[in-house]
Amino acid sequence: MKIAVIGTGYVGLVTGTCLAEVGTDVTCIDVDSKKIEGLRNGIMPIYEPGLEPMVSRNYKKGKLHFSTDLPSSIKGADVAFIAVGTPPGEDGSADLQYVLKVASQIGKHMNNYGVVVTKSTVPVGTAEKVRSAVQAELDKRGVNIGFDIASNPEFLKEGAAIDDFMKPDRIVVGVDTEKAKDTMGKLYKPFIMNGHPLVFMDIPSAEMTKYAANAMLATRISFMNDIANLCEIMGADVNAVRKGIGSDPRIGSRFIYAGIGYGGSCFPKDVKALIKTGAQNNYRMRILEAVEDVNEAQKSVLFNKLTDHLGADLTGKTFAMWGLSFKPNTDDMREAPSLVLIDKIVKAGGNIVAYDPVSMPETKHMIGDKIAYSEEPYDALNGADALLLVTEWSEFKLPDWNAVGSRLKNKLVFDGRNIYDRAEMNELGYGYFCIGSN
Fold this sequence. Notes:
The protein is 45% helix and 13% strand. It is an alpha/beta fold. It folds into three domains: 2-201, NAD(P)-binding Rossmann-like Domain (Rossmann fold, 3-Layer(aba) Sandwich), CATH 3.40.50; 211-297, Orthogonal Bundle (N-(1-d-carboxylethyl)-l-norvaline Dehydrogenase, domain 2); 299-433, Rossmann fold. The strands form three sheets. A six-stranded parallel sheet has the order 3-2-1-4-5-6, sandwiched between helices. It has a six-stranded parallel sheet with strand order 11-10-9-12-13-14. Helix 15 links the parallel strand 10 and strand 11. Helix 9 packs across helix 11, helix 9 (203-234) packs across helix 12 and helix 11 runs antiparallel to helix 12 (286-298). The longest helix is centred in the middle third of the chain and has 32 residues, at 203-234. The chain is elongated. The protein starts with a strand and ends in a 5-residue tail after the last strand.
């Protein structure tokens, strides 16, 4: 099969690379010529474990191609994935201008039957807009080329995207013809041979499934953060509560860890978009409104703990920050809680020296010299008034506490991800502050 993937961001690049890995002929297309040239030379635009060697291997084998030429790349394609960005507009709705622009380009240049697939996260009803955009261009050309539309939402976790694609929990595809179902079934056959389910449904349901999944996970996170805040007030320990409820199979142990809020490219955007979709249809998504409110407030919890202990004026104080990205194993800084914490500390007069294994270049791109950066985690501690643990990278989980204490001005640790043990920290003489426990 010949596959075209339009958009070489996180979703498009992972999708195209993994499809090439099972022998499919894939062309990844992007308007950014610098990005395409970089990919041809093995330079990744994103950090994702395992992606770089897979891209290099399949590019050298001639199974994975990179191009800025959509017109020639779309010709002869059996499936064309639209994987461009859908950034939130000012009102929270998904901006579909790039999706529909690509759809029009496909209609202008396709020369054979193919399935046009929305891979980007898009609101319910987008597939019909894509269908109309493609058909409008075919009508302008005066040609009668058959095509189908499908919705194939992605469920990739940043930091584990390769495994998620190659060994999926499920593959969801929305179709409205048997021909489209047969084509997508053939494409995904290599991924379901070991029992991973391929779930076909109608197109609107597939579009809704993506939003509902992310909204549910975001809800679990905000619920536990709300419980954590109440635990602190009532003298309970959210870590014990988490174990107590997580052992219930109806609840489970995933996504019930308290912390300083979710971020990234998916949860914040998708929650906003689903709230907006409800409003556009005269329905108020009350639970998701609360999920969003709790999450925004939670991003300030570590700062509040800091000022409760050290005072509102942080002038002249310096803080070591371990972790910047919104989660481990990614350089994604979109909606990262660290950005809120940085902004509040700097406005209060404080200084920050940060270390993150991979996301410092992206942070510098976003906020420049608003903070200082350290190339080594322990060097960030030198003379700092406290250590702020913001992202739970593996290398932070078992630090040398003697070395940490010898570098800090004060033995204070503010743990935004609850990865350290309070009893151990107290025994070592540290003042320790975490989430959902006193």
